[in-house]
Design goal:
single chain, mainly beta, six-stranded antiparallel β-sheet, four-stranded antiparallel β-sheet, 42% strand, globular
């Protein structure tokens, strides 16, 4: 079964938090009422000895919510929508940068998650060419996210 997981940036400290987003925006009675959208990222888990832990939550930036693709990079890091990745083809000697998007933004493939070229050598953006292909010399590595601020 596929793991359903999201990540988003906490409002209080800007750190990434994994979990499930829950919309806690207050309801309004009148369309003239302006209410700021509020999302809380909720996590539940189990202690080392198998006992359930309480549910924890933190307010997150609604614009930063990213869904997990089910893929991991060469280092075992989970790849989320909006992640920026560096791709290396050791056999052909080139690198390129791309970002992960949901859907079919480049109108080439229909895997559900698509790589969008950002910079570097022009490359095949087929998602399946860059994940679980270490034996062919093709590697992927998460290097950031579109919601990270450059320093």
């Amino acid at each position: 079964m596929r793991e359903i997981l999201f990540k988003a940036k906490r409002i209080d400290n800007g750190e990434w938090l994994e979990g499930v987003p829950v919309d806690v925006t207050p309801l309004t009675c009148f369309s003239s009422d302006s209410v700021k959208k509020e999302i809380v990222m909720v996590r539940a888990g189990f202690a080392d000895w198998g006992m359930p832990r309480g549910i924890k939550g933190a307010s997150v930036d609604p614009e930063s919510v990213c869904q997990y693709t089910g893929l991991t990079d060469r280092n075992g890091v989970k790849v989320f929508e909006g992640d920026i990745l560096k791709f290396t083809d050791e056999f052909n000697g080139y690198e390129w940068i791309g970002r992960m998007e949901f859907g079919n933004p480049n109108a080439r493939y229909t895997w559900g998650w698509q790589l969008v070229y950002v910079s570097g050598e022009e490359a095949n953006v087929d998602t399946l060419c860059w994940f679980d292909m270490e034996e062919s010399g093709a590697y992927s590595e998460v290097i950031g996210n579109i919601h990270d601020k450059e320093e």
